[in-house]
Amino acid sequence: MMKDYDVAVVGGGLLGSAIAWGLGRLGQRVAVLDEGDIAKRASRANFALVWVQSKGLGMPAYTGWTVRGSKAWPKLAEELKAQTGLDVVLQQNGGFHLTLGEAEYEQRTQLVARMHNQVGAADYQMEMMSATEVKKMLPLIGPEVSGGSFCPYDGHVNSLRTFRALHAGMKRFGVDYLPERAVSAITRDGDEFRLTTAQGEIRAAKVVLAAGNANETLAPMVGLSAPMGPTRGQIVVTERTMPFLPHPLTTIRQTDEGTVMIGDSKEDELDDRVQNHPINAVMSDRAQRTFPHLARLNVVRSWSGIRVMPKDGFPIYEQSQTHPGAFVACCHSGVTLAANHAFEIARMVKEGALEPELVGAFTAKRFENAAGVGGSGYY
Amino acid sequence: MFKRAEGDARASVTIHVEGRAITAREGDTVSAALLASGLDVRRATAVSGAKRLPYCMMGVCFDCLVTIDGVGNRQGCLVPVAEGMQIEIQKGKREIGK
User: Fold this and answer.
1) Minimal Cα distance from A258: which residue of B?
2) What's B18's domain CATH number?
3) Is residue B74 one of the residues assigned to a domain?
4) CA-nearest residue of chain A to B47?
5) Facing residue for B46 by CB, picked from A140, A240, A297
6) Which residues pair with A77 in a beta bridge?
7) Which CATH number is associated with domain A94-153+230-306?
8) How many domains does chain B have?
9) Does the distance separating the beta carbons of A244 and B97 come in below 8 Å?
10) pTM of the entire structure?
11) Strand pairing class (A155-156; A49-50)
12) N or C end of chain A: which has fewer CB within 10 A?
């Protein structure tokens, strides 16, 4: 198969489809080269937070980028609804990180202070609240809850419906979605890129690598680098129950349809076909200490998923010096940053250059002189 | 409507549906007793609120979800009746504390 495109986006997950949707919206001719249904897909395993608080310790630019993404989300939700009729149920009325016991409360208080003291970071009004204050907003917390941090920008969304809406929207913009097209080689031939897949070659003037952890392998083909340090997370889901949680937590959220999601584990594992059951037990135990009534609910599903996690936890957006027109994008927060990818990254790709003032801090060059760099990017 | 087979000699068991006493038979499941009661025992589903009755009667379809003795979302088709059992027809999602 041979067809010319303005842009080939490698990867059809949340990040790739947000960029492709954004490019289609700007009238670009776009192909999305994706794997198939069995791909390790964070887009289907994620916790669906649109999250701001505690992001960016160690990289102030990430707080600004995250706040920008959070503020642009309503526009994305509105455009998707108008275009596809799908309501992604964006809710942004603030979120909590709750603590159990005094030691955790002290630790969180110190983190909030460190975030506030960070020079150059956007102020996102994260504040500590006592258990009494929390109880006014979340009446069902248990006696072990010592308080927590609250950030008014935090929220959540139906991320599966967002994924579906982006794909439905891409199609309406005329984007060609090409599944089962894992890319094995990329070469530059004159003014165009040639992308090799088992089902033939795709040609495009530009290429955007948005293939999650596979970016690490693909990036060097176009003179880029994307060092990844993927981690596994697990999620436990209960049966539907009456609404009780008006604000999402870092570790517990109630979906628009009533299920309760419990999450936030981190392991240095890459196999998403198995689960570490003791971790599910700890997460469930903490959830029922936070909200004792959850102990009555049945668990209906649980799964593990692989996070797309650049080595230091912060996003990578980079354009190639040796292969002009090639870009790489990878980040852990495909949900939180979806609006940035759809509006800002897509616009910059169309214009042919990443803007240093917006995304200059996220260059992969930061890894070159940072031996042993590591972290999670959020706490 | 359902009618009990003639000549069923099993002992009677009294259960309460929304506070109203009905007569079931020993060995009935909650769902069978509800269907045989002649009452409107349709529950409302958790998301759309659609009206549903027990369907598969073998633990697969979850359309028989019902609150039994204060515990929500129980599969009525898998629970045998017991004397004095309190049944509430579920209206939507499982309630907090049930």
Assistant:
1) B93
2) 3.10.20.440
3) yes
4) A257
5) A240
6) none
7) 3.30.9.10
8) 1
9) no
10) 0.93
11) antiparallel
12) N
pLDDT, one tens digit per residue, over A24-82 is 999 999 999 999 988 889 999 999 999 999 888 889 899 999 999 999 999 999 999 99
ipTM of the complex in this document: 0.89
Q: Tokens 């990818």, residue?
A: A341
Range of the domain at B55: 12-88
At residue A359, the 3 state secondary structure works out as helix
CB pairs under 8 A between A and B: 32
Residue span(s) of chain A under CATH 3.50.50.60 come to: 4-83+159-228+312-367
Distance CA A49, CA B28 (A): 46
Q: Which CATH class, in words, describes the domain spanning A4-83+159-228+312-367?
A: alpha beta
Domain boundaries for CATH 3.30.9.10 within chain A: 94-153+230-306
Which residues in chain A touch residue B95, judged by CB atoms under 8 angstroms apart?
241-242
Residue carrying structure tokens 């890319």: A183
Tell me the CA distances in angstroms from A129 to A34, A97, A125, A138, one per residue in order: 44, 10, 12, 12
Yes or no, beta carbons of B93 and A240 under 8 Å apart: yes
Q: Which of residues 63-82 of A touch B (CB under 8 A)?
A: none
Give A183: exposed, middle or buried? Use CB within 10 Å, 0-12, 13-18, 19+. Answer: buried
For the stretch A321-364, pLDDT in tens is: 999 999 999 999 999 999 999 999 999 999 999 999 999 999 99
